[in-house]
Automatic annotation (TrEMBL), chains A, B, C, D:
InterPro entries named in the record: Gfo/Idh/MocA-like_OxRdtase_N (IPR000683), Gfo/Idh/MocA_oxidrdct_glycsds (IPR050463), GFO_IDH_MocA-like_dom (IPR055170), NAD(P)-bd_dom_sf (IPR036291)
Source species of the chain: Jannaschia pagri
Domain of life from the UniProt record: Bacteria
Pfam families attached to this UniProt entry: GFO_IDH_MocA (PF01408), GFO_IDH_MocA_C3 (PF22725)
Name of this protein: Myo-inositol 2-dehydrogenase
PANTHER family attached to this UniProt entry: BCDNA.GH03377
Residue ranges constituting the GFO/IDH/MocA-like oxidoreductase domain according to the UniProt record: 139-270
Length: 368, 368, 368, 368
C-alpha cells in the first residue's frame, strides 16, 4: 500500500462528497493507493479552513494554483464550478498530475477540447465525474448489454428529471442564468453520459431546448431566466439504434429521475434512480406464462457491491457512488491508464449538448 | 327502458368484445336504451353464423350492407378491418343510423374526412373506439388536469408499447404489410388519442417512423416488411406545452404499455396500463417531508367505476372498458349528441399520424 | 347449446354481480349451457321488480320459495344474507336443482353441515362463491404450487384487509352486530378459502379475534359493537407447513388487501389483490446475478384469461371473476360434477372460523 | 473538535462496516468527536494485522483484553461473535469506557442482564447495534407514529426475512448449530428491536419457532440442524395493540426483508428494506378520490439524510446506516448520555426472544 496525497478544489456539495469518499475508500475497497486528505481549496481562506477542519484535511488554501502545485498533492479533484474546471485541469496536467474533474467537463466544447488536449499531452490519468453510471445496477446493465443478454438493441430511452425549479414562484438564483447552469448544461450531461455508456456514440440528434418559466421573482420584481428548464432530443446512435433523451428541472415530483429503458431483440432492461438498488430485466425466453420483468436486487453478484456489504439487497446509496468513483480513479492512477469516462468521454458529452442547442435553434437534425 | 337493435360488423377480437359489452351493459349501467344483439356480420356465412351462436345474436350475415340496411338494426358497430370502415359508415349514415367505429377511424385522412362529412351531414350520433381513454383512472386523470389539480401543464410524455413483433424471427404476416396495420397506423392512434384527450390539439410535430426488422421469415425465405415497427415524435400542443409520444410493437416485455406522465406546476400524474386500476398523483403541497407520488386505487369515487363494484380497489379490466364505451355510445344516442371521441376526434388522430409520416420522410417539423 | 334458466335470490351487491355475469358469460366463454335470466327475488315485490327491469330478468318475486320451485328456474344462485342461505339451499336441493351459494356458506358450522348434507343427499351440483380464488393470477399460483414449480412449501402468509370500518367515528350499522357479519364471519372466509385452495387443509390453529373499536357513534350516543374488527391466526397445514392468516376491516388504506406470499424450497410466489393482474414469482435457479421476483402480467397463457382478451396484460377485473365463476358453475352443471369450492369446501371454511373463535376464547391451540 | 481513539473487536462483516463508518463519520456529520482508528482485534495476530492494514488502523492485536485496556482506546466497538460480547463489555465498563456492542447484546437474557448491570454500574455510555432502525425512512416512521400522524395504532406487522439458508441442499455450517446463531437468536432481534422502537414494549406473546430443514448435507452425510430456520409470534404491546412478527432465513427470494406495516385510526405506514429509501404513508384525510399510499422518497427533510446528500431521493445505503450509528454513538459519548437502543433496550430484545422460545415449547401465551 502506498500513500497518495489528495487535493480537492471546492468544499461544497461535491467537494464534501469527494472528501468523504477519499476518507472511506481505502477501508471499503482495500485499495493499493491509500488517500491522504492533503489539501482543500475554496474561494476564501475562511471557508477553506472550515472545510479543512470539517472534512479532516491536513491543509487549506484559497488559491487553487497553490493546491495544484503543492508537492504533497499527488492527485487533483476538481469540484468547483464549471467555469473553473479548465484552468485548474490545465495547470495540473502541466505538472503531470492525475486529474478527476466533476461533470460537465468544460463549460462548452472549446473548454473540453482544450482539457482533453492538455490531458493527452501530459499523459496523466484523467476522469470525469459521472457518478450515476457507477451504481451496481447500472454497471450490471452495461454488462448485460455488452454480453448480448438482451440481444440486439432496438430502442433506448433515457432521462434525468428533478423538480428543484418546478415551482414557478421559486425565486431567481444564479442557477437561472448562464447556459452552463441550465438543464442542458448542468443536468443533461448525466443522461447523455449514461446513454453513451450503455449505447455508444450518438451520431445525430434533433432537440428542443426550452425555458418553461421565462421569468422568476427577484428582489425587485420579475427577473428574466436566461437558461433552459427542460429539453428533449431524438437521437440516432452509431449502432443505428434510435433513442430519446429528456432532462428537466421542472419535473414536479421527481427527485432522482435518472432512468432508462432499453429494448433488445431478446430482452429489455429498465432502471430508475429512485430505486437505485434494483434493475428490472426481462428475458424473452422460457414459457410465455413465466415471463415478466424481474426485479433484480443488487448484491455481491453484481459489480461494485461486495465491498460495501456481504448481504445482497442491503443497498448502496449516493455517497457510495462517489466512493466507487474514488476507487476507480485510484485504480486508474495505479494502472497508469485512464478509465471511462475519461476527459475525452466527458468532451463527447459536451459535443452532444452543443449539438442539441444547435438543433433546437435551427429546428433541424444535427450530425455529430 | 327502450329496446335498441345492435348490429356488429366483425366477430373477431373487437367484434366479440363489443358483443359481450352490449350483452352486459344494460345490467351493469342500468341504461335507458337496452341493447338487443340483433345481427352480426363476418366475411363468410359460416363464420358469421358461428359468431351469432357464440355471442348470442338473433341473426347473421356475410353482407354488411344487409346488416346496415336491416330495419331491426338501430345502431351499427364497425369492428372490421380499417379498409372497410369508410364504406360501412357512409352507408349507415345515409340511413341516419348512429355509428360506432373502431379505431383508427379511416385508413388515412382522406377516409376520415369523408367519414366525418358523412356523419355530420346525416346528423347521426358517431363515436370512435378509443377504449383505453375510458378507464376510471384515465377519466380521473382528465378530470384532474381539467380542474387544474396539477396546475399549468409543463410536459407530457405518452406511449403505447407492446411486444407482439419484438422477436425478429416472428414470421411475416398481414400485420407486416400496409401502413394502416403498422405501428403508426394501428397502435399509435391510441397514445395520440390519449394525448389529445388529456392535452388538447397538437399543432406541430417532429417524428421518426422506423422499421426495426426489415425482413421477416416467410414460407419461401425472407419477406420484406413494408410498414413500421416503432415511431417517436416530439410534439407541440396548442396550449404551448411540449411533449413526446412513442409507439412500438417491438418493445420487448411490454404487454399493455399504454402509459403517460404529465408534469404541472402544482403536481404530476403518472399512469401505466399494466396497472390500470391505479393512478399515481403527486401534489406539490404540504410539508416537503410528506410529499411523494400517491398511488390512488380506483373506486366508486372515480368516474365509470361504481357500476362495476361498490368496493374500491376491486378492479376493472379490459372488457369493462368496452362496456363503458357501450354505455357512452348508448347515452349519446339517447341524448342525440355525439361524445368524445367523435368521428371528428378520430379524424384528428389520422391527421397527426399523417403529419408524423411526412415529418419522418422530410426529417423536418410539420405543422398541423 | 342449451338454454338454462337462472334464478337469483338477492339483487344487491352480489345479486347484481351475478346477474351481469350470467348475462355475459355465454358470449365470453361460449358456454354450452346458455343462461336465461329467468327470475330474481328480493325482500319486497317493488325491489324485486326494480332488479328485474334493471338487470334484464324475465320475472321477479319477493318469495324465494316461488323462485326455487319455479319450473323455469333450472339453477339457483343465492346472493342474499348468510342467515337465508341454508333454507334456500335446502329447498333447492330437495328439488334436485344445482345451487351456487355466496360465501360464507352458512352462518356457522351447523348451518353448513346441514347444507352439505342436503347437497350430497340430492346429488345436485353445488358451489360456494369464493370469487377471488378465480383470478387468472391465483389460478396460475395454484397451478405453480401443484406442479412443484417452487419446490416444497415452507411458509404461507395470507391476508384480506380492507378499511371500511377503520374510522372509529364511522357510525354503527348492522355490520357491527352479529358474528356472521364481523371480520371473522364475513371477510376471513376469503383468505381462509384462499389458503385452503393453495395449501390444502388446516389441522390446527391459534388465533386472536378482536374488536378494535368497542363502541361506535349511534343516533342516541355510543353503540356497543358486538362483533370483531380484525383477527390473526397462526396455522398448521396438514402438509406440516406453518402459516399465518390475517383479516381486517380496520386496515386503514387497504381497499382490496387479498394478498398472500408462499415460500418454497425452489421459489416463492407473491400476490396482491390491489394489483390483481400480476403474479410475482421468484425461481431459485440460474445465476445469482439474474435472480429476483418476476412480475408476470396475466395473459392468454394463464388460466381463465384468453376469453376476455387476446392481448396479454390487458387486464381483468372484479366483475370478470364473477363471470369466470358463472362459467365454472355452468360447466359443473353440464358435467354433473361439482367443482372447487363445493359446499363441502365452503363448510371447511366455517370450521376454521369456528376453531379460530374457540382458540381466541381459550387462548390455546385448537385442532380441527 | 476532539480526537477519540476507537478500538474495534472483530474485523469481519461488521468489524469492517464499523471501521469504514468511523473513517467516514467525521467528514459526513462534522462530528465534534473525531475518531482515530486506533486498534483492531481479531482471533489471530495475522488476521488482526491484515485488518489493520486493510482498514487503516494504527495498531492490531489478537488479545481483546489488550485492546480494551489500551490507554489510547477511548471507546470500544464489539463486532465479534455473540459468545464474546459479555466479557469484552464487562472489561470495558470496568475501565469506564463507552461500549458499542453489535446485536444481539448477549447470547441470552442472563448475559444481557449482566451487561446492563455492568453498564449501569460504570455509568459509561452504551449502545446496541441495531442499525436498520436508523435509516432515514424508519426514523421518519418513528417520528410520524410518535406525533400521532396516523392516529391511534391498531395493528403492527413486522418481519425480517432473508434466504441464505432457503436451499435445503446448502451444507451445514456453524450457522446451523446453537440457538444464538439460529433465526430467533440472530435475525429476529432486528424485527423485535424495530417493533419496540415503533410500538413500545411487548407484554405477551405466543410463538412458534421451527426448524424447516432438520438435516443438511455435511462432509460425511446428513448433519442435524440444532437451531431454528423461521419463527412467528403473535404479540400484544403494552399499548394494548396486537401485532405479529416473523423472522426467517428460508424465505426464498428475500434478501433484505426488513419490513413493517402499521395501521392507525388516521393513516397507515409501510416500509420494506428492499427499497430502504422510501416510506409509504397513507393519510385518511381529504377527498376519497385522492387517497392512497404516498411513496415518500427520503431526502433532506427526513432524519439522518442531509449529511449524505443535499438532493432528495439520491439515496442512502447499508454502510450509511452504520455511519449514522457511529454519529449517534459519538454524540452519546459527547453528551455523556446513552441513546436508544441502549444495552437495556438490547436486553429487552433478548427477553422477547427468550419468551418466544418458552411459548413455542409450551404452546402457550407467555407474559413478559
Ligand atoms: N456529480 C454530481 O452528482 C454533481 C456534480 N456537481 C458538479 O460539481 C461541481 C461543483 O458543484 P457544487 O459542489 O454543487 O458547487 P458548490 O457551490 O456547492 O461548491 C463549489 C465549491 O467550489 C469553490 N470554488 C468556487 N470557485 C472557486 C475558485 N475559483 N477557486 C477555488 N474554489 C472555488 C467554492 O468555494 C465551493 O466550495 C460542478 O462542476 C457541478 O456541476 C454538482 C452537483 C452534483
Ligand atoms: N380498440 C382496441 O383495443 C382494438 C381495436 N382494434 C380495431 O378493431 C378493428 C377490427 O380488428 P380485429 O377485431 O382485431 O380484427 P379481426 O381480424 O380479429 O376480426 C375482423 C372481423 O371482421 C370481419 N370482416 C373482415 N372483412 C369484412 C367485410 N368486408 N365484411 C364484413 N366483415 C368483415 C372478419 O370476418 C372478422 O370477423 C380494426 O379496426 C382494429 O384496428 C383491434 C384490436 C384492438
Ligand atoms: N363474494 C364476494 O366478494 C362478496 C360476497 N358477499 C356475500 O353475498 C351475500 C349477499 O350480500 P350483499 O350482496 O352484499 O347483500 P345486499 O344487502 O347488497 O343484498 C342482499 C339482497 O338479498 C335480498 N334479500 C334479503 N333477504 C332476503 C330474503 N329473505 N328473501 C329474498 N331476498 C332477500 C335483499 O332484498 C337484497 O336484494 C352475502 O352472503 C355476502 O356475504 C357480499 C359481498 C361480496
Ligand atoms: N447489525 C447487523 O446488520 C449485523 C450484525 N452482526 C453481528 O456482528 C457480530 C459479528 O458478526 P460478523 O461480523 O458477521 O462475524 P465475522 O465472523 O464476519 O467476524 C467476526 C470477527 O470477530 C473476530 N473474533 C472472533 N472471536 C474473537 C475473539 N475471541 N477475540 C477477538 N476477536 C474475535 C474474528 O476474528 C472476526 O474478525 C455478531 O454479534 C453478529 O450478530 C453480523 C452481521 C450483521
Amino acid at each position: 500500500m502506498t500513500d497518495i496525497g489528495i487535493g480537492i478544489v471546492g468544499g461544497g456539495y461535491m467537494g464534501k462528497a469527494h472528501a468523504v469518499a477519499y476518507a472511506a475508500v481505502g477501508a471499503v475497497f482495500e485499495t493499493t493507493l491509500r488517500p491522504r486528505l492533503e489539501m482543500v481549496c475554496a474561494t476564501s481562506e475562511a471557508s477553506a479552513d472550515r472545510y479543512r477542519a470539517a472534512f479532516g484535511f491536513a491543509r487549506a488554501t484559497s488559491d487553487w494554483q497553490a493546491l495544484v502545485a503543492d508537492p504533497k498533492v499527488d492527485a487533483v479533484i476538481i469540484a468547483s464550478p464549471q467555469s473553473t474546471h479548465r484552468a485548474i485541469a490545465e495547470a495540473a496536467f502541466a505538472l503531470g498530475k492525475p486529474v478527476f474533474c466533476e461533470k460537465p467537463l468544460g463549460r462548452d466544447v472549446a473548454d473540453s477540447q482544450a482539457m482533453v488536449a492538455a490531458a493527452e499531452a501530459s499523459g496523466a490519468v484523467n476522469m470525469t465525474g459521472f457518478n450515476y453510471v457507477r451504481t451496481p445496477a447500472t454497471q450490471e446493465a452495461i454488462r448485460l448489454v455488452r454480453e448480448g443478454a438482451i440481444g440486439d438493441i432496438t430502442w433506448y430511452r433515457g432521462e434525468h428529471t428533478e423538480d428543484f425549479l418546478a415551482d414557478p414562484d421559486a425565486p431567481a438564483t444564479w442557477r437561472c442564468q448562464g447556459r452552463e447552469t441550465g438543464t442542458m448544461g448542468d443536468l443533461s450531461p448525466h443522461p447523455i453520459n449514461c446513454a453513451l455508456a450503455l449505447m455508444g456514440p450518438i451520431t445525430s440528434l434533433n432537440a428542443v431546448v426550452e425555458t418553461v418559466h421565462k421569468t422568476r421573482p427577484g428582489p425587485d420584481g420579475p427577473v428574466q431566466v436566461t437558461n433552459d428548464d427542460h429539453a428533449q432530443m431524438m437521437v440516432r446512435f452509431a449502432s443505428g439504434v434510435m433513442g430519446h433523451i429528456y432532462a428537466s428541472r421542472t419535473a414536479t415530483g421527481k427527485k432522482m429521475g435518472y432512468a432508462y429503458e432499453i429494448h433488445g431483440t431478446r430482452g429489455s432492461i429498465r432502471f430508475d434512480g429512485e430505486d437505485q438498488n434494483s434493475l428490472h430485466v426481462y428475458r424473452a425466453e422460457g414459457p410465455e406464462a413465466g415471463r415478466g420483468f424481474t426485479r433484480v436486487l443488487t448484491g455481491p453478484a453484481h459489480p461494485n457491491y461486495a465491498a460495501f456489504c456481504q448481504g445482497p439487497g442491503h443497498g448502496t446509496g449516493y455517497q457510495d457512488q462517489i466512493i466507487i468513483e474514488a476507487r476507480d480513479f485510484l485504480a486508474a492512477i495505479e494502472a497508469g491508464q485512464s478509465a471511462f469516462p475519461t476527459f475525452r468521454d466527458g468532451m463527447e458529452v459536451n459535443r452532444v449538448v452543443d449539438a442539441a442547442w444547435t438543433s433546437s435553434e435551427t429546428r433541424a437534425w444535427v450530425d455529430l
